[in-house]
Design a protein that fits this description.
There is one protein chain. This protein is mainly α. It has one domain: Arp2/3 complex 21 kDa subunit ARPC3, CATH 1.10.1760. It is built from six helices and two strands.
């Protein structure tokens, strides 16, 4: 791995931690803090898109581990797995097409990634806090459905207008 790649991925991890922990906020659902609204996944998606699935997965896992350490919250490996998948899936599906990315491919990838990560994280919350999945899942899915077009628009602009792949 080149030094430039390591530095870029490190910056994307830092931006993810900042967007998630400082500018993200939790919304209580069913008595449990079960819904996070943030743009912290964008840099993780971007790391997978630009550098491949393994780098994306590592970036997601590292962002989660650093975020847990910074926030001083309890570590749970399930959330780290979910964060790794958030970088792995876009890397797997978008990395080969990064120079000629089409919006439909980006949307399908974000829908697949977003809903899979949401389902997994909901499962981890239910497992940890014995919360009712019926109370947690609908608002989390609605939130994801709202965030996916926003994520897609931002990523589309970054990849096609700013040309981050030439950094």
């Amino acid at each position: 791995m080149r030094t430039k790649t390591v530095v870029t991925v490190g910056l994307l991890i830092a931006v993810s931690v900042i967007l998630t922990r400082l500018f993200g906020f939790m919304v209580p659902v069913g008595g449990v803090m079960g819904l996070r609204i943030s743009f912290g996944e964008l840099p993780i998606y971007l790391s997978g898109m630009l550098f491949g699935p393994l780098v994306g997965a590592a970036a997601g896992a590292m962002a989660d581990l650093i975020g847990v350490a910074v926030a001083g919250i309890d570590f749970f490996p399930g959330f780290t797995l979910s964060a790794a998948l958030a970088g792995f899936i876009p890397g797997l599906l978008l990395y080969p097409h990064r120079s000629n990315l089409r919006l439909p491919r980006l949307l399908v990838t974000l829908i697949l990634t977003g809903f899979l990560v949401t389902l997994l994280n909901t499962y981890w919350i239910v497992l940890l806090y014995r919360a009712a999945v019926v109370a947690l899942l609908p608002p989390r899915l609605i939130s994801r459905a709202v965030m996916i077009p926003l994520h897609a628009g931002i990523l589309w602009l970054l990849v096609n207008r700013v040309r981050v792949d030439r950094l």
